Amino acid sequence: MADRARIVIVGGGVAGIEVATSLGRGDRADVTLADRSLSHVWKPMLHTFAAGTARADRQKVDFFAQARRNGFRFQPGALVGIDRQARRVRLAVEAAEGRPEVEIAYDLLVLAIGSRANDFGTPGVAEHCLTIDDLTEAEHFHDQLRCHLLARLDRGGMLEIAIVGGGATGVELAAELKHAINLLSAYGSPDLPGRLRLTLIESGPRLLPAFPEKVSRAAARTLSDLAVEVRTGAMVTAADATGFTLKDGSRIPAGLKVWAAGVKAPDVLAGLDGLERSRTGQLVVGPDLRTTRDPAIIALGDCASLTDPQTGKPVPATAQAARQQAQHLARHLGRVLARGDTVATELPPFHYVEKGAIVSLADFNGWGTLGRYTFGGGRLNGLSARLTHDLLYRQHQIGLYGPLRGTLTWVLDDLDHLISPPVKLD
Fold first, then answer.
1. For residue 311, what pLDDT band results from cuts at 50, 70 and 90?
2. 423, 425, 426, 408: which is closest to 180 by C-alpha?
3. What average pLDDT does range 233-238 have in this prediction?
4. Given a cut of 50, is residue 190 above it in pLDDT?
5. Which of 11, 303, 328, 415 is the most exposed place for a label (fewest CB within 10 A)?
6. CA gap 349, 287 in Å, rounded
7. Residue 343 · residue 5 · CB < 8 Å
8. Average pLDDT, the chain
9. Residue 95: what pLDDT?
10. What is the tens place of the pLDDT at every residue in 121-137?
């Protein structure tokens, strides 16, 4: 139908793919999803792909296949710019020779392009540190980890890894790396765990600042028991090929360096003239998720800056918040389209509901929060938090695949764990 609204969604993360899937199934709009990658993965799993304890090729959602099954189109490409007057979005097809650009016309543009770690301009970080903000980076980190491991197995010596950032990403990555090394020690290298020097650096006074202090203390104890050196109150002032320099002048040697601190919007948003941005580069949106200066553009998830009108607090840059925003938009925009209204119709305000948070330290421990209550802790008790973490992922899969295929995917994943090596080495 030529008169159907043209909805373009840029970014195939948690928010983008759920909105595209929901609106595409409704068949009331011409929906296009664009992403620089050809497949979707659940971002909270990136640290497991980086460590090799989960295989990304088993967890990917192919965008082309998802689009075909759910009535939307997929266009490969990274956001380059927007012509707001003509309502056309420009994308660069990175995998193609010469990086050609394509343009897509829209009536409503939904930006869900996530966020990046923020190095705050620290000298040497961009040149010498790895990040794991997306699947490509997680897989690149794993390749580097494998190279360093093979070098240590061949020539001996210490495997020195340092992670900057004591939030959930840094803490979970540290635990997952210890778990991977412990598993690899059974491959004929029983001394391997003793040759890993792993340091976690946090500039603030404690790890996991978004969690209650008792969880921070327990996580630090767990990591210490795993022989991870935890440095809090440590400000990194520079990075180079051999490690980090701290504000007090001390050095932390590391051949493999990861930056997992801070959050900022992707740099491309800085080039979108006329749109209001926050201090960290996010697009400022109103309660209806539309950008403050252009109602034809909606921003979701980490790339959006939203102050909840009920609480007066900023909505956090988490997968939980992104998913709630996606569900809110898909539900209400779907109703607008079902009534035959235009995409310019005002949408109800979004209200963020804090449903708690979960941090899982591989098979070693885990904690969750529900309001004022905390659960988990201890090797066995932490199982409840780790299972909840897994169930959230399965819920996401069912939302994308439907109940039957989502459940079958869960079963196949469990079967694969029985026959595949516990750590990816290829």
1. confident
2. 423
3. 97
4. yes
5. 415
6. 5
7. yes
8. 91
9. 62
10. 999 999 999 999 999 99
**Identity of the amino acid at 240:** D
Long-range contacts of 67-71 (CB under 8 A, 24+ apart): 67/20, 67/24, 67/33, 70/20, 70/21, 70/24, 70/25, 71/24, 71/25, 71/26, 71/27, 71/31
Looking at residue 404, its amino acid is L
Q: What gap in Å lies between CA 227 and CA 246, rounded to an integer? A: 21
Task: Name every residue whose Cβ is closer than 8 Å to that of residue 232 and which is 6 or more positions away in sequence.
Answer: 166, 202, 204, 205, 206, 207, 220
User: How confident is the model over 352-374, as a mean pLDDT?
Assistant: 87
How far is the CA of 285 from the CAs of 43, 179, 289, in angstroms?
23, 41, 5
Residue 204 near residue 166 (C-beta atoms within 8 A): yes
Torsional sign, CA 256, 257, 258, 264: negative
- Cβ-count burial of 2 within 10 angstroms (0-12 exposed, 13-18 middle, 19+ buried)? exposed
In 3D space, the residue among 84, 76, 122 whose CA is nearest the CA of residue 101 turns out to be 76
Q: What is the pLDDT of residues 39-49, one digit of tens each?
A: 999 999 999 99
Written as one string, the DSSP assignment of 123-174 is TTHHHH-B--SSHHHHHHHHHHHHHHHHHHHHH-S-EEEEEE--SHHHHHHH
* pTM: predicted TM-score of the whole model, two decimal places: 0.91
Taken as a whole, the chain contains a residue count of 426
Which of 46, 15, 280, 318 lies closest to 170 in space, CA to CA?
46
CA–CA separation, 172 and 385 (whole Å): 13
Distance CA 11, CA 177 (A): 29
- Contact indicator for 41, 59 with CB cutoff of 8 Å: yes
Give pLDDT, residue 275. Answer: 95
| pLDDT tens by residue, 243-269 | 999 999 999 999 999 999 999 999 999
| Strand blocks (E) in 213-356 | 228-232, 236-240, 243-246, 251-253, 256-259, 283-284, 290-291, 294-299, 304-305
Using DSSP, how many helices (H) and how many strands (E) does the chain show?
11, 23
Judging by DSSP bridges, how do beta strands 304-305 and 283-284 pair with one another? parallel
Radius of gyration of the chain (CA): 22
